[in-house]
Structure formats: C-alpha cells, structure tokens
Amino acid sequence: MRALSVGCLSLALLTAALVSSPTPASAATDAQLHACRNRVMEQYPGTIEANVGASQIWEANGSVRIDWFNGPGRAGTCVVGPRNQMFEFIVNGQPQPPYNPGSGGGGSSGPGWNGSGQGLQNFGNIPHLGQFAAVNNSGRFSNGVVFFLAYVNGSGPSQYEARCATGRLYYPGDSGVVRDSYQARYVVAYVCNGGPPVAGPNNTVNFGKVPGVGDFSVLNGSGRGDNGIVYFEAYVNGNGPQNWITACGTGQIGQGGQYVQYSPQAQYVSSYICNGGPPGGGWYR
Question: Which of 32, 37, 67, 122 has its CA 20 to 30 A from that of 84?
C-alpha cells in the first residue's frame, strides 16, 4: 500500500500506477473452476461436474487459464476473468462461443459484457476521441488484452484494444494509445472486467475480489467529489459501510491515508465512481 497524498497526484505517481500490477494469486478460485466446468457441461449435456478435470496453467491480473478434460476426445482450455466471466473457451483446439446464448449475457458464470446480443454500450464522449460505443459480444481476450469492436462518432465498427494491466485504450491497428483520461479508463475497466458490476443488497454493487483488499461492494449514492478525488462508502468482505477514497486521475482507491496497489479490479471501482456509475447514469447524491 502507498501513502496517500490528496494534494499531490504527481506524474511519478501516475506512472507508478500505470506500470504496477497485482501480485498473482496462487491458484484459481473455486468459483473460477466451477465456471470452467459449468461451460464444459453446457458443451456436453449430461456431463457431471465431478467428472470434469481441471488444472490451472497460467494467470495474470486476476484472470486464470485452465486446462480441462472430460474423457477421450474431450479436452480444451478456459480463460476465466476475476469475476468468473468466461473470456475464452476452447474445445480440442477450436475456440467456441464463451457464453450461453440463452442466458441473456454471461451464461452460467454471471453477468458479463460479452453477453448475448449485438447491442451497443454507449460511453458518451471520450476526450480526444469522440462519442464512443462498444459492440456487445465482440470481445476476444488474449494475453491480458481484450480486442473489441466500437463505433466512434457513429463511424465503424473498428477494432480497439483494452489493455487490462495498465488501464489504457488503444486505437485500431498500430495507431497508438488513446490519450489517458478517466473516461477512456472506464471503457477499459468495463470491458476487461466483463461488463457491469453485480447488483447487491441495500443499494450496493459488487465488484468481486479486489487484490489487496477483498470482496468489494460500493454503496450507490454515497459519492462526494472534490477536485479529482471522490469520497465514497463501501463494504469489504461484508463489513461496513466504510469510508473510502479514489483518485480519478490514477485509478487508485484508498482508505485510512493509504492507497492499495493498482489493479484492473481497483481501476474498475475507481472508473465506476469517477464516471458516475453505469454508463449513461447518474451516481453522486
């Protein structure tokens, strides 16, 4: 955790925030393994979950790559996100649709941006880019990057890149990085974390496990902004509400005079708050 200095969000702090990444967990969570096995059961109706073998082979930024097998001729790979969303599902070397088309988005693993349907998610104006709308169900995850389609000022779709470890949005092809802003970071956070957070009890939204903190739920309507800093209330592992703070310029969240380490999950919490909640909706009281 880093010392918190509300009045001095320096370039050095911003650079440190962009290049740092969370310490990987030691293994996939039970929920991530269940999401992978459940997708196998969707692929092969009648399969019993206990008969699906699974072992982790890679992970980064809260996502895990899992090898699975289910008898002769049935083997493949899952890439499961930090909130148990299925980024990629491969059967015998062939990529498959990651979500159950009849689920309304997210299949058995919960709500996800790559859900069914080809509607658009509008993010409003992205500074130095324009009116930005992502195409739902267009994301493809590979090595910490989500490639997805989007319209800018009504033109498109074109393929953009969301780089999950740094929170940066990249133009199509080799055209470089979109100028950093908390609006652009929101696009990346939304895409990399699989869509909107999960609605919880008592007017809260749950962001899953935030590295270095725990299970994190934000109390809607509790935000108070002040010169790039937003003060808000949250529950951690069910305890709270507690007082928290986020620096919109760096995507960090903190408490008690300290920031937690930068991570895609913490960035999503910050982006959600600094951009006023769900895209197109108000949040501050």
Answer: 122
- pLDDT of 75-102, one tens digit each? 998 888 777 777 777 888 877 654 332 2
Q: Could you give the number of structural domains in the chain?
A: 3
Domain presence at residue 285:
no
Per residue, what are the HEC states of the chain? Answer: CEECCCCCCCHHHHHHHHHCCCCCCCCCCHHHHHHHHHHHHHHCCCCCHHHCEEEEEEEECCEEEEEEECCCCCEEEEEECCCCCEEEEEECCEEECCCCHHHCCCHHHCCCCCCCCCCEEEEEEECCCEEEEEECCCCEEECCEEEEEEEECCEEEEEEEEECCCCEEECCCCCCECCCCHHHHHHHHHHHCCCCCEECCCCEEEEEEECCCEEEEEECCCCEEECCEEEEEEEECCEEEEEEEEECCCCEEEECCEECCCCHHHHHHHHHHHCCCCCCCCCCC
pLDDT digits (tens, 9 = 90+) for 226-263: 888 889 999 998 888 999 999 888 888 999 878 988 88
Choose the final residue of a domain: 54, 86, 109: 109
Higher local confidence (pLDDT), 69 or 140: 69
pLDDT tens, residue by residue, 155-166: 888 999 998 888
CATH number of the domain that 44 lies in?
Answer: 3.30.200
Residue 233 lies in a domain: yes
Domain containing 13 equals 2-23+211-274
